[in-house]
Amino acid sequence: MTPPVAAQPRRIGVFGGAFDPPHRGHYALAATAIDQLQLDVLHIIPTGHAWHKSRALSDASHRLAMARLAFADLPRVLVDGRELVRPGPTYTVDTLQHLRQEYPGAQLYLLIGEDQARALPSWSRWEQVPALAIICVAVRADSTGAKGQFDALKAQVPSLTLLNMPPVAISATDIRHRAAMGQSIDPLVFETIARYIDQHHLYRPT
Q1: Does the global pTM surpass 0.85?
Q2: What is the rounded distance in angstroms from the CA atom of residue 11 to the CA atom of residue 41?
Q3: Environment class of residue 175 by beta-carbon count within 10 Å: exposed (0-12), middle (13-18) or buried (19+)?
């Protein structure tokens, strides 16, 4: 039975990324967005075939499992594996279009990092994205000149907004490097993720 209209989620967050691995910065962004944007649901969507990545991602099954572990205790989060089963390159605009069909009349909020915001004009059919979702940008802690870059992009995308959160200086690249070198990653990821990485021998040199 279809629930009454009043019970349908109206504010839908969309947070995509490689999550290779998911870390405390990802969690902080998700928690902040849920609170600040008053989201009914936040879709955490691990990237499928990342056309823009120069490196091969870890197997989809590992990234999906780690995402489920990382966000397990965060209310209103749905770890969504749709891009992992989609053939060919995965584009944000396609995912947003599908979600608009699933949540007719709802407002979508796309959560992206500052580096993704700077690269926005290189996205496939990026001009369609602002019509599908309000773009919410989280600025990195180690950013320089972020305000000017943000203002320049906002001139092209007026609906762009900044998430009001203390930036977290954590990078998945650094975590993978530490894991490869046999260094501790405990301060950067949750214990469940560190244990999963160790158990499955992820990021170690072959």
Answers
A1: yes
A2: 7
A3: buried
